[in-house]
Amino acid sequence: MSGSESRTPSVFTVTAPPHIRSKTTVNRLMWAVVIALIPAFAGSIFFFGWHALSLVLLSVASAVGFDALSQKLFGRKITITDGSAVITGILLAFNLPPGVPWWLPVVGSAFAVIVVKQFFGGLGHNFVNPALAARAFLMVSWPGIMTAKWISPRFGTLSGFDAVTTATPLGVLKHADEIVGAGGDPAAIVTQVQSWPVIKNLFLGNVGGCLGETSALLLLIGAVFLIATRVIDWRIPVGYIGTVIFLTLILPGQKANFATYMLFHILSGGLMLGAFFMATDYVTSPVTTKGRWVFAVGCGILTVLIRLWGGYPEGVSYSILLMNVATPAIDRFTKPRLFGKIRKVKQ
Questions:
Q1: Against a cut of 0.85, is the pTM above it?
Q2: H/E run at residue 238
């Protein structure tokens, strides 16, 4: 027997699956999203002042505190350092009008973390987005506060143009015939709200709206970071925004100009915030590729239908929540075909 043949064979380490490992962890993903939200956070302070800072900090501190308290009471491991509660707090604050009282984000955080997240088992078990569910809860409980506490940005007006100052851009378009301004002519108001100066203000964030949704530019900066680092899948935001573009162009509406009307719907309201930061939530969105397209298109359809014919000027929050509920069914009917599986032949 040769020397090479007499050597002791290599020892192989056998472990349980999965055998393909990644350095990606829940903590890294969550804190990456927090980093991506920093530009919009800074923008909210710039446009709406220090009250915006206090609302975000209160919302985050409350979310983290309620997360730790509920985990302690339920006998679970305290995982507040994973960043999930921080994201919930930021996103909840971003969905609030800038002028709400200090206690509103505290109550909203309690509902989001305790009821929506921990009552269903904690991170990974909630069936809807906690921040959006809390926003819906606050809207139902205190509609007067949630629909009236708007603040004009530092260098602009609520609507984005001087003739009308009493409604956010989506509100102006929704209720143009009820607004007295621009000579009292609804058609003139529609034309102005879809003008290029207003589109510019919508892109930069110099308009009224919820705390973190007004600046499409700052949200896009964070979105590019998340897509480039593969934290989120590009299919959901592209499918969502693409559906809104398609439907706003083919469906009847108050169109002064096709290009500006389409851009108005993309840049106004919470579409950018919802498409990139809430519809892409790992827990409440489909895991299959086809399912993500279905989810995105469903969000887009519901958003446009609510905006055009619903009772609210905005439809992003409710659209995502409704599609969250449909996610298990979407995953079930879009799961990939299993190769090698033997089909039972009917006798």
A1: yes
A2: helix 235-250
Instruction: Find where tokens 């100052």 sit.
Output: 165
For residue 62, CA distances in Å to 55, 66, 105 come to: 10, 6, 8
Cα first-last separation, the chain = 60
| Side chain identity, residue 200 | K
What are the per-10-residue average pLDDT scores of the chain (347 residues)?
Answer: 52 61 81 96 95 96 96 92 95 96 96 95 92 96 92 86 79 75 68 90 92 95 96 96 95 86 93 96 94 97 94 91 96 82 64
Q: 18 preceded by cis ω (within 30°)?
A: yes
How far apart (Å, rounded) are the C-alpha atoms in residues 106 and 226? 28
Whether the CB-CB separation of 324 and 284 falls below 8 Å is answered with yes
* DSSP of 172-195: HHHTGGG---GGG-HHHHHHHHTS
Residues in the chain: 347
According to DSSP, residue 270 is labeled: T
At 213, give phi and psi (nearest 5°): -105, -10
Query: Closest Cα partner for 273 from 319, 309, 329, 230?
Result: 319
Tokens of 285: 């969105």
Spatial distance between the Cα atoms of 153 and 187, rounded to a whole number of angstroms: 25
Residue-range domain boundaries for the chain: 26-148, 169-331
